[in-house]
Amino acid sequence: MRNFLGHSSRRLKAAIAFPLIGLALFLLSNRVDELRVYQGANVAVFVVAIISIILLTGYSGQISLGHGALMAVGAYAAVLSQIYWHLPVILTFFVAVLAAAGFGAILGSAAGRLTGPYLAGTTLALAVGLPSLANQFGFLGGEQGLNYDVGLPPAWLGADFTQYKWFFWISGLAALIITWLSFNLLGSHYGRNWRALRSNPTAAALMGIHVGRSKVLAFTVSSGLAGLAGALLAMTISLVTPSAFPTSLSFSIVTGAVLAGVTLLTGSIVGAVVLVAIPEITGALATHLGGSEKVTSNLPGLLTSVLLIVAVLLFPNGPQAIMKRTRKSSQ
Amino acid sequence: MFERRRSKRTIFALATLAAGALAVTAIPAQAFNVHTTDGVTPTTIKLGITIPLTGSAAPGYNKIPAAMIAYFNYVNDNGGVNGRKIQLVVKDDAYLPTLAVAKTNELILKDKVFAVIGALGTANHIAVSKSVNLGRRGVPDLFLNTGFSGFADAKKYPTTFSLFPSYIMEAKIMGQYLKDKFPGKKLGLIYQADDFGTDALAGFKQAGTNFAVKVSYASGSQSAQTAAGWVSKLKTAGAEVVVMFGVTTASGAALATSAALGYKAQWILGSVGGDATTLKAVGVPAVVLTGAIGASFLPAPTDTSDPYVAFFQGINTKYNGGAVFDNNVLVGMNTAMMTVQALRAAGSNPTQKGLVAALESKGSTFASAGLAPLNYAKGVHVGYNGYWFGSYNSSGELKPVGGDYSVYTTDSGAGAIVKSTYVRPALPANGLPTN
Amino acid sequence: MERLFNTILIGVSGGSIYSLMALALVLVWRSTRVVNFAQAGQAILSTYIGYEVITHTDNYWLAFPIALVAGALTGALIDILMVRTLMKRAHSGPVAGIAPVIATLGLLGLIRAIVGMIWGGDLRQFKLPVSNHGFTFGHNTIPFAPINLLIVVTTVVVMLIFSVIFQRTNLGLSLRASAYQPEIARLAGIRVDLTRTIGWAFAGAAGAVAGMLVTPTNYLSPNSLDLLLVSGFVAAVIGGLESLVGAAVGGLILGISLALVLEYISSSLAFPVAFVVLIAVLLVKPSGLIGAKRTRHA
């Protein structure tokens, strides 16, 4: 049981820690080369996406294999608001959150009665079906997509300030804010309700928690975050197109969440780094090992899959033991 | 027991964190963006390509890089380009825009390639052009393997050179062909419901073609089952001539299913879905393909009387392990041969700027297997702009209608369709360019 | 009328393949409470093995049982090598629902990569066991051919065989007991691990049948059954995941709805159909058409 003082000291620590992390990241972005900065932007995007799964699966116990589709909703909302309403970039991110959250609320209400595999199946069908709709309606731009341009970095940042660094700053800041907000949300009574719900829905209901409403709320919040991640992802490729949101994207972020430990917000950085680093590392390994074209082109997939299976079999709860211990000792 | 498990987890967490931290910090600080000539040393020139090697779009395309490397190795064995050996770095983008951007960034920022060649996929390459911004970085982006007309815009994509005629050109020329050869017939169209199909619709509209029935399909949904639905629609509408503007697996499904359902029509296959070798591999019986009409801007890969095809088939045997010689292999080797000429044209001390300029000034004179002219000029980055029509014989070879290649050319706008008088340059001696 | 009839026929032949894949997924779900995404990989591996036999012997009917046995063995092997550990390590907590998804997805990637390494990414095809030329009545060729009949009949036979095993044999009783109450089954002397392995083997064989039947009219590549996996999963969920009949009905509902939408609404709407059908069914019956008797909380 956390007492009031413990609670507020945690908040204080967070209030100091987050700006410090931010500062460290920004300093880092000046030290590393452009490829790493670009990859850093991707890591930040995945942090937001993975947190959306952690809130949903780790806390409210619902499984979604369709968050890629919700990311698409956010990305399309953002780019459409830019094209038709000429909103400034910062506001398009809010539009992304709101649109995806609204979509998620409707889906969540429909899916609120669904559990486990039924929800997984429904969301997977959504991931398969939704992005293809972009080819049905002209205003969605079809396969060639809609250009999502967050603009050049402001001039006062200097001529050396690259576009990718700008992407990194934007997505890094978003990831920090989202992490901080999620910490607070999970510390609030909503977070406690979700935890109660996850461990024992019947007991939670007896304690007066409205199970259905609580689940829908979790789905809504999670969808909103996915929408933001979608807009940020579109920013890194400057384009909103259905093929940027394939079914494999939904699987990737769930994978990231499992690697993160499903219940641990700070684990999201581990999951995100792995997701971004793996294709490059396995690709380089495959080139290094060599072999016939058949072998080298499939080696990255093989290595990634083996790593994934081993990680899930040996460490199903992710790398959280160490972090949990640190957190406990600090209280 | 509990402690052991816990310590294992701790190690895992530490290892992952360390790996992540290493990946980020082990790289030395470095100057930004201003790009000097990368990828060229006194003995090598490094080029890069991203292409689907795995995933559902991979079949077919995955043969292209090996074909390119085969031709490059042949050139390297014969002294390379001005003494430099060509290396091709190949990355798998699984036909996803996010991966195409990530892998192109690796090519440019880590492998430091001199130029990107043969990139593939409309959405993929729009994303790459915008996000990686090849134009601003000055990285040459040569010989795109896509018919999306937008890449021809040299102002928007200053270092990009498309190679294939656009889908709009293809549909326009096909529309004219329909008007000439099948006047008054009931026409049907099957097209892919994305940019590929919408470009085709635009071209047919331009040509004034009226279809009695149009059937669209979502990319990836083609199968024997969905094709049964297409055929029943064509049948109901009584289409006598059917244009198939889709990928090979879709035209394969359409042809095989129409045969199975006893539906007979004059089929006209677009260049993307008309590779006879692949059609046979996906189960289209030879008797169904026989008599169908196909469009192409290259000679048929089975036409050994063509000097380019015969030469490339020799390279394929010696340097490519005797892979099945289809359109993809031909495209790969042809692209490689044009790349060698572009590099030669850029001079003995090639720069990226020099390469772009060389293509603009000399690109239209390059020797290539293409039967349609190359249009490169200052500010014009369009490659081939024409098609010829052939019909498939009983062994699946595409033979020109009327015996010799009559190529029709046009543009992606409202320009006229004209019979081309272009005569392609002869194959350089031993297939080694001397430009 | 003829148009509707033809459309339904197209739907039935497509749907029966979904049913087979759904059946495979249901068999694993019943024995392990895991949605097995590796099923597409297992099926593709078995089908490639069948393909190898056909290229060497030119005999589909020899390849069919060999692919089936290969599928069963792969299924059993996966259970012994992976699922056992998974069940021990990730059986509780928030991760329990999602770890199997990731593990089986990893396995799908692994099998696909292995298949790609052995056979490459080229499209392949094997000859039809029976004709794919639609039956003809007078001048009318209907979109239903001997191959489609073979698919439907095989699906029915496979369903019947499994129903008999489940309802009429001791093995079936053990399978059902271990699925519903593993602890009690264990106390009653049932070897729960072995029973689960048999469930995975059955599923592997069913997946192989689906692969061997769908490939002759389409083509084979490391990814060629991906979409079938999704359709099969959706069909299984529509059917309620627990029942063999449910899987069959779910597959047919999905197949026929898809054919109807493509014919009457838009031929390019293939992908959103599954979601719409699924949400429509689940809004009425949240545990599928023939779902569990009691509500299940994941």
Question: How would you sum up this structure, described in words?
Answer:
The complex is a heterotrimer of chains A (331), B (435) and C (298). By secondary structure, chain A is mainly alpha-helical. Chain A has a single domain, classed as ABC transporter involved in vitamin B12 uptake, BtuC (Orthogonal Bundle). Chain A contains 13 helices and two strands, in the order αααααβααααβαααα. Chain A has a two-stranded antiparallel ribbon. Chain B has two domains: 203 residues, Rossmann fold (3-Layer(aba) Sandwich); 126 residues, Rossmann fold (3-Layer(aba) Sandwich), CATH 3.40.50.2300. Chain B has 15 helices and 14 strands. Chain B is globular, with a radius of gyration of 23 Å. In chain C, 61% of the residues are buried. In chain C, strands 1-2 form a two-stranded antiparallel ribbon. The C terminus of chain C is likely disordered. Chain C has one domain. Chain C has 298 residues and is mostly helical. In chain C, α1 runs parallel beside α5 and α1 packs across α9. Chain C contains eleven helices and two strands; from the N terminus they run ααααββααααααα. Chains in contact: A-B, A-C, B-C. At the A-B interface, α1, α2, α9, α10 and α11 of A face α1, α4, α5 and α8 of B.
**Main sheet characteristics of chain A:** 2 strands, antiparallel
Biggest sheet record of chain B: 9 strands, mixed
Order of helices and strands of chain A: HHHHHEHHHHEHHHH
Count of helical stretches of chain B: 15
Question: CATH superfamily name of the largest domain in chain B?
Answer: Response regulator
Q: What is the correct CATH architecture of chain A?
A: Orthogonal Bundle
Integer count of domains of chain B: 2
Number of helices of chain A: 13
Oligomer: heterotrimer
**Broad CATH class of the largest domain in chain B:** Alpha Beta
CATH topology of chain A: ABC transporter involved in vitamin B12 uptake, BtuC
Q: Report mean pLDDT of chain B, rounded to a whole number.
A: 89
Strand order of the largest sheet of chain A: 1-2
Chain pair with largest interface: A-B, 62 and 58 residues
Number of strands of chain B: 14
The radius of gyration computed from the alpha-carbon positions of chain A, rounded to a whole number of angstroms, is 20 Å
Principal-axis shape of chain B? globular
Poorly predicted residue ranges of chain A: 1-6
